[in-house]
Amino acid sequence: MKIRKWYLNQALESFVRLNEVLVDMTEAEVLACLDLEVAAQRRRSVINRLISRAVRLKELEYVAQLKKKYL
């Protein structure tokens, strides 16, 4: 999946901006941001927020799979 660099730049600009754009980011983009933030050994709050979002995206994917299979 293509990673949109604009979203990465915006997400890593500030914690406030991260929260604004996070809902529009794909799982790949969230993980790319997480990789960059961890590699830079930067803000723990940003890392935790990115992890939370990655988990939520996986949860939504799993729910969709279960609904497709059982409903």
Write structural notes for this entry.
- There is one protein chain.
- The chain starts with a helix and ends with a helix.
- It has one domain (about 5-70).
- The chain has helices at about 5-10, 15-20, 25-40, 45-70.
- α1 packs across α3 and α3 (about 25-40) packs antiparallel against α4.
- The mean pLDDT is about 95.
- It has about 70 residues and is mainly alpha-helical.
- It contains four helices and no strands.
Walk me through the topology:
Elements: H1 5-11, H2 15-21, H3 27-39, H4 44-70
Helix pairs in contact: 1-3, 3-4
Summarize model confidence as the mean pLDDT: 95
Number of helices: 4
Shape: elongated
Write down how many β-strands occur, each being a DSSP E stretch of 2 or more residues. 0
Integer tally of domains: 1
**Poorly predicted parts:** none
Question: How is the biggest beta sheet arranged?
Answer: none
| CA(first)-CA(last) distance | 28 Å
Taking Cα atoms only, what radius of gyration do you get, to the nearest Å?
13 Å
Helix and strand sequence: HHHH
Helix content: over 70%
